[in-house]
Protein 1
Amino acid sequence: MLHDLFSFVRGPMVWIAFTVFTVGSLYRLISMWRLAKKKDSVIFNYFSIFFAIRSIGHWILPFAGVNMRKHPAMTVVAFLFHGCLFAVPIFLSAHVILFKESWNISWWWMPDMAADIMAMIVIGCCLFFLGRRIFLKEVRYLTSVSDYLILAAVAVPFISGVWAYHQWAAFQAALVIHIVSGEIMLMIIPFTKLSHMLFAPFTRGYMGSEFGGVRNSKDW
Amino acid sequence: MKKNKILLYTVVFSFFLLIRIFSAVSQEDIETVDDSAFKKLTRPPVSFFHDEHNENANIDECNVCHHMFEDGEKLEYDDSIGMECSACHYSEPRETEADLIRSYHLQCSGCHLKQKTGPVMCGECHRKK
C-alpha cells in the first residue's frame, strides 16, 4: 500500500506537479501581461531596465533599504528564510540523487548536516511569520485564513522532510507526506500569494522605474 | 583508596570489553553493502543479509545481481562475483560518485519498485543507528 503510494508520488505525480507549476506560471505571467497591456498600459511607457535593476539590486541586499533597517528582525528572518527555502531543496543530497537516478544528471550537494540545520531554520522562520500574523495587529488586520494555509503549505514539506531524514516514528509515512506536500506547494505557487515568486521582479522593477525615471527619487 | 580506583577502572574496562565482544558475536551474520570507492559516506551504510534476501526473493542465479555486460549485452553465462560494483560503474574518468550511487540505487530499489516489494525509501535501507 505504502509501496504503491510511494511509487506514484515519486513517479507520475512529480510530472503532474512540475507541469502544473510550469504551465500555471506561464499562464499567470502571460495573462497578467495582457491585463496590464489592456488596463494599465502606462507601465509599458515608463518601464526602464536601468531603474528596475537599480531598485531590485537594493531590495535584494539585506539592509540596503530604509525599511529593512527599520525592521532588523524581519529583515534577517526574511533573508534567511528565502535563502534556505531555495538552497535546501535544490542542493539536498537525496534530491540530487533522485534526479541522478531518473535523468542521469547531477550537481553539487551540500553536507546533510548543513541541510538539516537550514531546514530547521526554515521551520523556525515559519513560526516567526506565524507569530507575526497572530500578534502584530497591523499584520493580523491583513491576514485571512488562506495566509495560514499557505504558511502551512510551506512549512509541512520541511517538517516532514526533517522527520523522514531523522527516521523518527513512522518515517515512511512522513516521507510520503513530505513528497506530496512538496508537490502541492509547487503546484499552488502560480495561483496563490506564493506567486510573488513570479511577479516580484516586475512589481519591484516598475516601482523602481516610476520612482527613478518619473519622480527622480529612490524607492528603497 | 588508590587500590579502589584501579579496581573501578578494571571493572568499567572489562564491562565495555564484554559489550564489544558480545556485539561482535551477535553481528557476525550481518553484512553491509560496502564499496571501497566511496571515500566519505553521505548516508549510513546499508545492512544486507545475502542468503536471507535471495531466499525471500527466490533468486537462484548469481548473475541476476552479479551481472556481467559486454557491448551493452548481458552475458547469460558469466557473472561478476568478487568484483566491486565500482570496478565497472565508477571506472571512467568522467564518472563521479553519483554514478556509482545511481548504480546501487537502481540495482536495489529499482528492482524493489519493479517487484513491488522490498525497501524503496531512503531511510528504509540507510538506517540510522
Protein 2
Amino acid sequence: MNSPLISLDNISIRVDGRTILKNVNASVSENEIVTIVGPNGSGKSTLLRAMIGAVSPAEGTVHRAPGLRIGYVPQKLALDAALPLTVQRFLGLPKRIPARDAINALDLAGVPDLRNRQMTKLSGGQFQRVLLARALLEKPQILLLDEATQGLDQPGAAAFYQRIEQVRHDMGCAVVMVSHDLHVVMAASDRVLCLNGHICCEGSPRTVADAPEYRALFGSGTKGTMALYQHQHSHSHDHDHHHAQDKTH
Amino acid sequence: MLDDFMVRAALAGIGVAIAAAPLGCFVVWRRMAYLGEATAHASVLGVALALAFSLPLLPAIIASALAMGVAVTLLRGNGFAMDTLLGVIAHTALAAGLVTVALLGDVRLDLNAFLFGDILAVTKSDLATIWVGGAFILAVMIWRWSALLVATLNPDLAYASGIDPKREEMWLTLAMALAVAVAIKVVGVLLIAALLVIPAAGARSLVKTPESMAFFAAAIGSLAALGGLGGAYLADTPAGPSIVCAAALIFVVTALLAPLVRRD
C-alpha cells in the first residue's frame, strides 16, 4: 500500500492541562473510508482537528503527505447573520472560483440550485451539503467530516452518507468521518476506530462491533446498531479481552 | 484648497471613513465592537505615558493600542467572557490614562479634544497622517481579506485551507491600532468604536456579499462625515459627535429601507 496521507504517530493532546488524547496511533491511506466512533468527550473531534493541524499535539507527531489537499466539513458552523454571504461567495473562499466550478461542486454535493442563495437562509441539510461542496472544490485527496449530519433527521443523514460514498467513488478520495450515528456510518466504513481518550479498538466494522471494548462503551444491543451485521447473535463473549486489532482491511 | 479648514476636515473625515469601513465590517462580523473601544481607550494611557516621558505621540498611541489588542487576543478564553474581560481592561486603561494625565500636573494635553475629537483643527500634517495611515490599513485589509473571512467563518475551516487564523487575527489587531491612531483627531477616543460599527451595521441591510458591505460602509461613513460636518457648522454643535449622529441617522434609514432592498 502507498504511504499514508495522514499519520498520527503516538500523539497526546492536552487542552487547558486536561489530557484529551493519549498515545494515539492512526493513519489514513488513499481511498479508504475510516470512521471514528466514541462516546461524547472521547476526543473524536480533537483527533480530526489534529489531522487538519488545528491543534498541535503535546507529544508525538502528525505527518501529512506533502502538498496534501484536505477537504474539511466542520461539525457546525455558526454563521453570524451580520455577515452577508451568498453560496457562490462562500464556495469561493479563500480563492474566488468561476460560477461553473461552483455549479459543478453543488451538483456533486446534491444541491444544484443554491448558488445565489444567502448562507444564513439555508436549511440545515442544505447548509451541510454546501459545506460538503466547498470541501470538494479543491479536489481533496482526503475528506474529513466531523459529525456532519448533526441536526439532520434520519433520512437526511442517510442520504448525506450515500452522497459521501458516491463522492468517494467518483473522486477517489479518502474519507474520515466522526460520528455517533453508528448504525449508518459503520456499515459504509472500511475501518472503524473506537476512541475513548485512547484507541480502544480498531478494525473492520465487524471486528469492532464484536470487540469487548466497543461493547463496554456502547452496549451490545444499542438501537439496532448490530442489526447491520449478519452474525449479530453469533458473538460468543470469548476470552479475548485484550485490544482487538484487525489490520486486514 | 487645503487652506480651508472645512475642506481639511471633510478630507480627514472621508479618509477615516474609508479606512474604517472594511475594518468595521470585521468588527461587526466577529462581534468585537468592544475591542475597538478597548484599543481606543488604551491610547489614552499611551498618550499619558508619552507625555510623562516626552515621547512622540503618534507612535505612543499606536504602540499602546497595539499592546491592548495583543493583550486582549492573548487573554481570550481564560475563563472570562469577552465582554467581561474587555469591560475590565478597556475601562481600566481609560481610567488609568486619565489619572496619569492628572498626576502629570503640567498638562500640555487638550483632554477634551482628545476624548471627543477636534476635526475642525486638522492640520495638513494631520491629514497626511490620516491618509497614509488609512492607505496602509486599506492595503492590509485588501491583502488579508479572503484569509480573514475564512478565519472569521470558522478557525478550523481556515486551518484546513492552510490559513493560520491566529496570524490573521494579529493583522486585524494591527489594523485596529492604526485606525485608532488616525481616527482620534476626527471623532476622539470615546467615539471611535461608533465610527467602526455604525456604518458597517448600516450597510448590512443593503447588501448580499461581504465586499459590497465594506464598500457601502465606506460610502455611509463618508456621507456621515460630510453630513455631520455640515450639521455641526449650521447648528454649532461639536463635530465628532455630530458625525456619529449622522451615521446613526443613516443607519436608521437603511434599516427601514431593508425590506424593500434586500430579497434573498
